[in-house]
Every structure is written in structure tokens, then in C-alpha cells.
Amino acid sequence: MEPIRISYFSDVLCVWAYIAQIRLDELETNFPDKISIDYHFVSIFGNAREKLENRWRDRGGLSGYGAHVQEVAKKFDHITIHPDIWQNIIPASSTSCHLFLHAIQLLEIKGIVPKSEQMVEKATWAFREAFFTKLANISDRQVQFKIAAELGLAIAPIQAQIDSGEAYALLSKDLDLVKEHNVTVSPTLIFNEGRQRLNGNVGYRVIEANIRELLHNPSGELSWC
Fold first, then answer.
1. Considering the entire predicted model, what is its pTM?
2. For 124, which of 44, 167, 192, 221 is 20 to 30 Å away at the CA?
3. At CA 165, angle to CA 152 and CA 174, rounded to 5?
């Protein structure tokens, strides 16, 4: 039986995706040969400062949003949030991060970096952790290079994927998929060729139940559920 393909859309600056990473890790541990997660990005914080200032204008602006993130984080003991989150260091755009991560993905596709090292997943988590715990301006290319180097990645091959335009092509493909599936929330999980989806802060057991249902009712078979 082919593994169940899960399309996972998130924004690297989204606190809910930061929270949800532990659930993805648990899925991959519990269903190692039965699922395949395809990582994609949705640009929720593509224009971070202006968007947050506008949407939180009547609720304290960036300071209000930062306080909101702090309140959200208090409910989850597996994550750490810097007390000054979204106060002084405001990444300009998550799109820069997504482009860089696609460049790393291309290294896997081309066999320059072994897929078994799961470097895209490691880099995505490293970006999130750097921002949420250390206030690193992860939209800055030099910060991205620093994180990549800490992961043991050579910088020149990553830059080559960006310079060639290929990383932009993967980013554009994500934008097309976002439109095709009408993804507006980070994170979003899409199963069963788009027929099932889970949006936002969904608990692990709910995600697991969807997977088990698909395992017990393979594509092409009727389900009375």
C-alpha cells in the first residue's frame, strides 16, 4: 500500500505552526512507513509589519500582537517564546525564509544533501526556534546563512539554487497550490487528494484519527463513516 500523502502548509513565522511541529514529529514516529508529508509554505506573514499593524491597530498594534502570542504560548509547555516577541525585532517577510528553505529542498531533490537527513524539516524548525526564542531576524539573508552553517550546510550550493531561479519556481508552485486548495490558515493539513483538510490548532488525536480512517478505508473504497 502506498503511503498516505499529507500536504502540510505553514508559515515559518506562525506561532501555531511552531506549536504544531511536535504533532508532526509524533505522526512520523507513529506512522513511519504509512505516511509521507509534503512540506509547503503559505504566506501569512509575507508583509509582516504592515499586516500586523493594520489588523491589530485597535488592539495595541505590534505590542498587542506580541502579548497575544505570549498568552497563546502559556497554554503549551513544549515551546519557549521570548518575552519581547514581535516588539523590537520584526522580520520584514516570511517569504524570504520560504525561498531559502526551498533552496535547501532543492539540494535534497538533486541529491546534494541526503533526504534521510531531513534537512528541510531541521532548517524550518531552526528558523522558527531562532525567531521565537532568540528574536533572530530570520528574514535577513545573513541570518539565514548563519543558521544554515550551524546545521552543517554549505552556503554556495544554497545560493546557487536561488540565483538560478529554481528556488523561486518551487515557491511559485507553492503559491499555485495555495490557490488551488484555497489555503488561508497556517498550519493546514490536506489529505486524500484534497478531499479532507484540517486547519489551524488541531490536536494530535484528531490528526491521527483522520490518518487511521484513511488507512482503514483506502482510496477507491466506500466508507460509511
1. 0.91
2. 192
3. 85
The separation between CA 151 and the C-alpha centre of its own chain, rounded to angstroms, equals 18
Alpha carbons 116 and 197: distance in angstroms, whole number? 27
Task: Say how many domains are in the chain.
Answer: 1
Instruction: Give 64's DSSP letter.
Output: H
Point out the least confidently predicted range of 8-17, 141-150, 180-189, 194-203: 194-203
Query: Cell digits for 101?
Result: 528553505
Residue at 56 is within a domain: yes
- 149 within domain boundaries: yes
Count of H helices and E strands in the chain?
A: 9, 4
Locate 152 and state its grid cell: 552543517
Burial class (CB in 10 A: 0-12, 13-18, 19+), 107: buried
Domain span including residue 121? 4-216
Distant-in-sequence contacts of 121-128, Cβ < 8 A, 24+ apart: 121/39, 122/151, 123/147, 123/148, 123/151, 123/153, 124/12, 124/39, 125/21, 126/150, 126/151, 127/12, 127/97, 127/101, 128/12, 128/13, 128/17, 128/18, 128/21
Whether 223 maps to a domain, the answer reads no
Q: How much of the chain is helix, strand and coil, in % rounded to 5? A: 55, 10, 35
Q: Dump pLDDT digits (tens) for 191-219.
A: 887 888 999 999 999 999 999 988 887 55
Burial 61-74 (b: 16+ CB within 10 A, else e): bbebbbbbbbebbe
Q: Is residue 175 part of a domain?
A: yes
Task: Please name the residues in contact with 168: beta carbons below 8 A apart, sequence gap of 6 or more.
Answer: 99, 162
